Amino acid sequence: MLSTHGYAAMQAGAPLRPFSFERRDPGPDDVLIAIRYCGICHSDIHQARDEWGGSIFPMVPGHEIVGTVTQVGSAVKTFREGETVGVGCFVDSCRTCESCQRGLEQYCETGMILTYNGLDKKGQPTYGGYSNQIVVDHRYVLRIPPGLPLAGAAPLLCAGITTYSPLRHWGVGSGHRLAVVGLGGLGHMAVKIGRALGAEVTVLSHSEAKRKDAERLGASDFVATSQPAVLTALARRFHFVMDTVSAPHDANVYLDTLKTDGTMILVGAPTEPMPVAPFSLILKRRRFVGSLIGGIRETQDMLEFCAQHGITSDVEVIPIQQVNEAYERVIRGDVRFRFVIDLASL
Ligand code: NAP
Ligand code: ZN
Ligand code: ZN
To answer: What's the pTM?
Structure first.
């Protein structure tokens, strides 16, 4: 077993603290990765506080992982020692179901194995990227294209793919007006990627505070939604809305900003149900769809796309000792736009 160090929440809502644990010895198909950076996703906070239910403790969060390969198993032909690699939200899946066969491992019929807060095929808990090293089957490891700054690349492994996947799936591109609701970790990636795909992007943010940032990120328009009348004025304006908001909110006010046949893509995962008024959908044949991260093949495509377009996340790099303070700041919306932990601080 590999003695490993990290930070864990010992129970729901407890502050994270130093924690030592063991990882499996790398097998023939495994890659051992020395972790360099790990992003802080709002999902880490939802799970460390058990806001979605079913959390497993102790929990070492972290699923936006970038690091260096330090060892490869005898059967691994695709990675070598010294290579820069990434790990996202899952580290295994059944590999045989229809979803896995289609490269949609995130929708695996028997359930993907989460990078943390999951159980591996032997029933052992998985631990994430707020730690010095991780052992992952090579089929679930991504290649980080050369030239991408590593701290800024880490959030691509969740925030990047979560926004890229549905934008590609629904064919968002030139000639489309895309509204991004919530300018946080996911939202700012949606602006950059949506723009690179050719869409005209409007940011719908709950206050005026991020107007300048939105322009700098490439949005052509910015609307502060604190006054409901503002949204009424946007009725039937957009082809697509991507909702990245982490807190409970009314979906209908955003559905009403869609054109006929428009699509609202839900990626934010608040803890409360989101009631939909039937006429928000019926009257304009609108769609309200969800999307979960992305498969391994598509994540690799996304990384290449971001490298081609010079896209990374805007990050604030922190030592791991500041993780609890960072959680509080994420909840307050006080981050531009992703905290990334430098594991050298561990
Ligand atoms: P984040 O950085 O905290 O961003 C969320 C944004 O939502 C905030 O920046 C804020 O934007 C807006 N917001 C927050 N509280 C609000 C409130 N009370 N009222 C109105 N707006 C509010 O979080 P994130 O890491 O981007 O994650 C966003 C959500 O996506 C989380 O629920 C997370 O669990 C989920 N997620 C889903 C997937 C998936 O596969 N579907 C993957 C990753 C994360 P403004 O200040 O601009 O209003
Ligand atoms: Zn995430
Ligand atoms: Zn499967």
So the answer is: 0.98
Q: Are residues 164 and 154 in the same domain?
A: no
CA of 95 to the centre of ligand 3 (A): 5
pLDDT digits (tens, 9 = 90+) for 62-76: 999 999 999 999 999
Q: Are residues 257 and 267 in the same domain?
A: yes
Residue range 160-199, pLDDT digits in tens: 999 999 999 999 999 999 999 999 999 999 999 999 999 9
| Measured distance CA(284)–CA(296) in Å, rounded | 35
Q: Are 54 and 116 found together in one domain?
A: yes
Last residue of a domain, one of 261, 290, 319: 290
* C-alpha 48 – ligand 2 centre gap (Å): 12
How many whole angstroms from 186 Cα to the centroid of ligand 2?
9
Ligand 1 pocket, mutate which of 245, 265, 299, 329 (most atoms under 8 A from CB)? 245
CA-based nearest residue to 30, from 120, 91, 99, 84: 91
Could you tell me if 143 and 260 lie in one domain? no
CA dihedral over 70, 73, 77, 78, signed as positive or negative: negative
Which residue's alpha carbon is nearest to atom 35 within ligand 1? 268
Considering its fold, how many domains does the chain have in total?
Answer: 2
Q: What is the residue whose two structure tokens read 């700098």?
A: 216
Range of the domain at 49: 2-158+294-345
In short, whether 246's Cβ falls inside 6 Å of ligand 1 is: yes
